[in-house]
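Worked example 4.2. Below are the chains of a multi-component assembly; read each line carefully before continuing.
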Amino acid sequence: MTSEVHVRWLGTNAWEVTGNGATVLVDPYVSRTYTGATKPGRFDPETPIAIDEAAIDEHIGAADSILITHAHFDHIADVPYVAEKTGATVLGTETHLNLLRAMGTPAEQLSLVCGGERYQFEGYTVEVFRSSHGVTGKHKNLLFPGTRPGEVPARPEVVKDLVEGGSLAYLVDFDGVSLYFNAVPSFHEREIAGIRPTVLFMQGANPNYPDYEERLFAAVGSPPYVIPTHWDDYEEPLTEPAVDLFGGAALGEVVAQYSPDSQFVLLDHLESFTITG
Amino acid sequence: MTTANDHSPPIRRRGLLMGTGAVALAATATAGGIAAAQEEDTQSEAAPAVRLRWLGTNAWEFTTPYATVLIDPWVSRFPTGAYTPEGADPETRIEVYEDVIDEHLPKADTILVTHGHWDHIADVPYLASRTGATVLGTETHLNLLRAMDAPEAQFSQVLGGELYRFGEAADEGYTVEVFRSSHSASGEHKQIQFGGTRPGAVPKRPKQIKDLIEGGSLTYCLDFGGVSFFNAGSANFHEHEIAHLRPTAVFVQPGGKHMPDYVERLLAATGFPRYVIATHWDDFDKPLTEPAVPGGNPNNVEVLRERVAAASPDSEFLVIDHLESHDF
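Applying the procedure described above to all two chains together yields the following structure tokens:
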């Protein structure tokens, strides 16, 4: 069966995937509120969460599913508005969904997952995997760590209120064209061993994680396509070419070394790519 | 062998378990006098190693000469409307009918909880207090049970990944392996009914069925030494968690339409077990003391039978009615 799947980059880890008449969004975030996060020493955790509805309306149309990898502001802040606007099913951990509830997201659209699920949607399946967020610094710190299980917490007002809340990875399959989101240095090797995605959405190395690329390609094989993600300075405009802050282009050399049969596809802001199964 | 309404505990032929084939025979051959004793035993109508009895929903009683294990023991069956078009009324008051529990569940050494919904957990506080059984569940399951005054000292908190031995003597014991899982999802947005957890401090006492949240889901492999059973309380499982598991029998239930190839993947993951047992297929607003009435689709068991036959033609599909037993 031949199927065509289109992917479009919306900056950060935000992706729009369309195929079989359906649209799946991963971490849809286009508000790009200035927090100083990408400027050393400038990050203000008390920055109020702000949603740029005009930007969302400009760049995001329909959606059937929204997949959340974790709850930091640059992944989740726009989801309440996008979910309301599209009526999409939102997959996330109990904490992700509790934060979304606290921001007024329609509760009946929230689908609680923990990793291990495989769901049938109309035109595609989604498999969920446990993962971890990357850490930084001498003490391997996780930014805004923690969870908010149980009762719905107070409404998040500033970016530090959006705690990580656990991390997930997703394999989305459109009749054999499969896309793996959240290939990060902190991935859980045993969780994803044996999957064979058509497209791997990958982030660059992190010195805290040994042999990242080797272990990743050992786990997922040599995918036909590797697309770098979350490499732009996400406080610069989405409507301008991406500023390569996190080594998007450099990933090409890594892929050439560890998975020479893969095609490296570097997409710029708002650019699309089509995969034919 | 399926028998109706027989409460008498089975007597195991010492050392010889049905279904273990050459391995068990080889083991008994070295056991001297015991093996000799069995020679006669096999001539008679021998009692089984494990008697499995269905109490409706996903409530199962496993009885050996030495122990009784219960999974999701719930027999109070107060009506909620779960299989009506409107679904269960979330504000239905939780009722515990002690006389009904006493009638149907005389004993327990271990109670395995698959998730926190009322039709799995509501009778556990009373049952645990009366029997002194060990109760396995997640932090949330146990917190809900604490809030319903179940005996704390009997709680065994698990999260999946544990393998425990129960029983004193090696040949009188059994093992329980615990696996992470998820509850099945339903509806347009793939929601888990009463989803969520209550870790940390003990929550308020649950009064209505919506207070008994799912609290994470577990699956269990219960191994009596040669005869083993894999049970999930809902129509879902984590394939990678249970790959390579080879139980004698696996429980399957209707539903799971949001989980692609649930039945087929479950049978493949568990190595196409010799027995496949239908579970959680009855409308539990209907009496336990009468034959089970399918919940939802009136043909749910037949649909399941056909799927199992197609996916695993060598498996025997067992439908055990309310309060009936099957001996392994």
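Take a moment to check your reading of the output against the notes. The mean pLDDT of chain A is 96. The first strand of chain A starts at residue 4 and ends at 9.
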